[in-house]
Amino acid sequence: MLVRGIWQDGIDPTGFTEVLTDRRTWLVTGQTLYQAALGTVGAIILGVPGAYVLYRCSFRGQRAARALATIPFVLPTVVVGVAFRALLGRGGPLESLGMDQTVTAVILALVFFNYAVVVRTVGGLWQTLDPRAVQAARTLGASRSRAFLTVTVPQLAPAIASAGAIVFLFCSTSYGLVRTLGSPGYGTLETEIWRQSTSMLDNRTAAILSLLQIVIVILTLLVSEALSRRTAGRLQLRSRHVTPLARADAAPLVMTAATMVTLIAFPLIALVTRSFRVGDGWGTDNYRLLGTSGTGFAGGATVFEAIGNSLRIGLIATLIALAIGVPLALVLSRRVHGPLASGQSILAGAILLPLGVSAVTVGFGFSIALDSPPLDLRSSPLLVPIAQAVVALPLVVRSLTPTLASIAPGRREAAATLGASPWRVLATIDGPFLLRGLGIAIGFAYATSLGEFGATSFLARPDSQTLPVIIVRLLGRPGENNYGMAMAGAVVLALLAASIMAAAEAARKDPR
């Protein structure tokens, strides 16, 4: 991307100057940072009370409540965007509010999507905090709110900051949500990269904008990693402290319940309900129409064909991600010292980049780097799976590395001392632990590939379009049938992603 997009005709400082002094560049940059900041603040404000109720307290039905809070994060971004269109758009229960295709709708969807990040990150630390510090403050006369602000908040600060950095990263790279929810005139760095490269055919401007986004992402990742290490250090070797819900917990309980119902459950219910809406009545016509390509389209894949394409491409992408990710996880899980440790850290950071760098940037880089000899893959059916594997690879490595790192080094050394070959050590020591995390790694990779939209929107050919691409295409065309089909397609995509994650979780094995 850098060579073809920026240095193809030699270094030209005027190209950078023109792009970086263009008013539109800083308009879309400001919009990107603005929506990311508001989405982060909203997720923290709603997520901290949720972390307390769902992790610090105990009550009947807690496991189901945690599962409901986690659902948004495992859904593809296209599904989240369509769900809020079903809630706020035409025919939706909140259409009268006039928030369809507004910045407010995008920010609400960002909070919905990232709520689970704050709840799980902050809740995981909160349940390890020793309650005696708060009890001592109360004994000395501090009110409940003062004890929370002066004792609990400082202890939770690393987790809140770490979650905030991750949420900011996700909010600033939310291409699918902006494409499905934003107005035609609303743009972020990602949508501008897509517009410059596909509509304006200006790869140099798109490449410079990609660099600008990568700088933002790297800075956020550095902050996130530093804060995550501090949070992990506080979580080590701590026992869990939970208490039954009490009358004094009424405020966070009501806030959490309201969030779960209005922000999480309501959009999902609206999506399913709207998918069965046909004119002034109800029926399954929208689902039957999935056997077509929609109204007003000339050729192209039907929605059912797109589902098959998504499943096939996702499977190939998952196999590629596993073939690369398993050896990397084995390398990164080893405890090394000296120069090797520095190299290991650099490798770990490099693998994390696709997790933060927008999938749009990945797709754009593939589209301009692999479209001519000697690496002409534009017509290859492997191009989209390879791009999706790049996006899924960090999740595979991050899923497997902690499990493998938990193996005591002495076990491998003892096996080697007793004459076991390296392959035997790998099979008998690492193998059971690898199987323990392999199910969830497969689930993350397959579900991510199934719902991937950013890179695929650049690379998918007309005869191999995936379900997220078809859904966005239907949503952007006029016609009640197209709109209803988009709703039905989003429900199908959500069910597929949720089923894959559930099956992967069920397949997890503990080492014997």
From TrEMBL:
Q: Record's Gene Ontology CC terms?
A: plasma membrane
Q: How does it sit in the membrane?
A: Multi-pass membrane protein
**What GO terms in the biological process aspect are recorded for it?**
transmembrane transport
**Domain of life of the native organism:** Bacteria
CDD domains on file = TM_PBP2
The UniProt record lists the keyword Ion transport: no
List locations, semicolon-separated. Cell inner membrane; Cell membrane
Q: Which Gene3D superfamilies match?
A: MetI-like
| Membrane-spanning residues | 33-55, 67-88, 103-126, 147-170, 206-227, 248-272, 313-333, 345-370, 382-401, 433-451, 483-504
Q: Which Pfam families match?
A: BPD_transp_1
Q: Which SUPFAM superfamilies match?
A: MetI-like
Instruction: List the keywords (alphabetical).
Output: Cell inner membrane, Cell membrane, Membrane, Transmembrane, Transmembrane helix, Transport
Q: Which residues form the ABC transmembrane type-1 domain?
A: 29-224, 307-504
Q: Which family does it belong to?
A: Belongs to the binding-protein-dependent transport system permease family.
Xref: PANTHER family: INNER MEMBRANE ABC TRANSPORTER PERMEASE PROTEIN YDCV
* Designated name of the protein: Iron ABC transporter permease
Source species of the chain: Flaviflexus salsibiostraticola
